[in-house]
Structures are given as structure tokens and as C-alpha cells.
Amino acid sequence: MENNCINVLLIDDDDLNNLISTKYIKKYFANSNITSCLNGKIAIDLITDKKANQPGFIYDYILLDLNMPVMNGWQFLDNYAYLKMDTKEKCNVFLLTSSVHAEDLQRASAYPFVKDYILKPLFSDKICKIFNLVQ
Fold it and tell me: Which CATH entry fits the domain spanning 7-130: 1.10.10.10, 3.40.50.2300, 3.20.20.140, 3.90.1150.10?
């Protein structure tokens, strides 16, 4: 997998979770470009900037926490949908969260671009599921 270069956006307010996720992704995709944002607002600003300065750029994967300050995961999803960045749904958005609430799982299904709901922490088995890898 080392030759595959993917663009990943991690959105989580926990630096340790971002570090762990980055290490696991790099294990399978050594050449990946991984950007971490500590809340949804920073991520939306980054995506908006990319849209303006690099038309056509779309993250291959977005791993999104739900519970964050400033702009939580739900607010991010609403803003992301509003931006219409990915009209062909090429970006794979995964909720990567510690929330086990059934309401959150149901609410996530209302966003057609959300591929799956993954519980933290991110380990090899979950990386394989997200990136469709065979272990």
C-alpha cells in the first residue's frame, strides 16, 4: 500500500486520537497526506479555502468526531452538505466517535455521504474496514 497516496482529513478535538489515527493510516498508506483539525469550524474553513484555491480538490477520506467544541460533527456535516463540495460523493466520510447512542447512529444515516459509523479508537481492523483493505 505504500505507493498509494490518499488525502485524509481528521477532525477531532483530541490530539492523541489524531496522533493514533495518523500512525495507523501511515502504517498502510505511508505516502498519505493527513491533515488534522481540532474542530469542525477549522475543517470547514480549510475545505472552503481549498475550494477557492484548488478547484476540484476533494479529500479522499474525512474521519469526523461528533463531540467537539466550537463546531461539532453534526454542525460540520450540515455545513459540508451546504458547500456542495463533493457532488459526486467521491469523498468517503466516516464518523469516528466514542458515542454509542442509538440516536446518533440513526441521525448519521440521514447524511447520504456518510459511509459508516466507527467507534473509537482506530485500530488496524477499523482501518481495514474504512479503507477497504484485506488483512
Answer: 3.40.50.2300
